[in-house]
Protein 1
Amino acid sequence: MRGDLNDFRKGKCVVRISSIDQKKPGAVQGKTRGLSASPVCSRKSTVRDKHSLDRNLGNQRVMRMTAQRTPISPRIQRDPPPAPNPCPDGIKKFDVFGVNLPGSTRNLYNDEAKANTVLAQCCAGINIVGGESWDTTLLDLQAPHGSLNEFKSMASPTAEETTMLAHAPGGSVIHAYYVPKMSDRSRGENFRPSVNPAVPKAVVVSDTAAVDTFVHELGHILFDVSAHHANPDNLMASGSIRNEGVDNITATQCGRI
Ligand SMILES: [Zn+2]
């Protein structure tokens, strides 16, 4: 027996959900497109019927919510979490002042990028605080002229080296002296007060230097080591075996900075 909505409100009717039949008079269209709810009355309708109605409408609500849920495609590119900061304490910069001696063709700026790339492994880098083209005759103090006479032991610098180190226009920062050549054909050398208290922290770079000679010599200062590393891939390997351009630094070496 079909009834009207007034009967339904009085608890006398149940509602049956069926497909929309636009032509059927009295059909109550549900919110879910394509469904309609028609009140059907019965003499046996009780309050329990209303509860059945609630359950039916509730089921329809769940169906509607399920239908509206957008499936998650595995192809969706999610925004990845940020990579952990490798240098949470920032980059430790070491001030360096460049001095070019007569005849040299390289300069500190040629070595800046390489040094910063290599030292980034230790969250370190250099900061060029100034430079100078020094007009001096010190390379002619001792034979052979035109080249820096280099030490056999850091404890005993040559007269040319002592004169050179006394010229420190950058003050107390690390100086990088660029020379055209060195008497024993070395590509570079370093000075450290931890080895000889009479010398400042300084590096020498000749025109024959490799791309990583400057940062290798600086490594002797920053890591405060004299011995060379046995691994050719290490920055502190001797120039005779070092794979230039690899320049790995170990965590232990970084820990010495
Ligand atoms: Zn070395």
Protein 2
Amino acid sequence: MSEKKNNQVSRRTFLNYTLTGVGGFMGAAMVAPMVGMAVDPLLQADGEGDFVYVMDEDEITEEPQRKTFTIDQEDGWYESQAERVAWIFRDGNGDILALSPICTHLGCIVDWGVQDDHPDQFYCPCHDGRYDKDGVNIPGTPPTEPLHVYEQRVDDGRLYLGRANPR
Ligand code: FES
């Protein structure tokens, strides 16, 4: 009699352990991918932080040149490519400057030297915004801050650009 009771308790205990183990395993199997999805983007390199070849250093002139290049970007699990534009030239000191064409007023695209009255400035057609050659906003026009500047590297005579940052 007491042996039978011991067997019943033993079966119940066994079932409890088994169900707890299986439940725990299934729970871990469900939660692990979710934790991975939440943490992985934080561990991934940011595609926009990479440097991309844009042009050879000896092609860079004092006159700003409009160059397009393609970057790989990641948004969580979604990978895509995006086109970027830079105005690239040598400034008065001979240093390379690569400017973003995105107007800092409301985000239209600036062009270089298109106004007869201001041939040495960047011009934004949306609200007549203007910037000098270094990308500094002209007082009295809508933009209140300079054009953003691309991070740059020159390696073996080749210019690489990274992300564009405010100054
Ligand atoms: S968006 Fe360029 S001046 Fe307004």
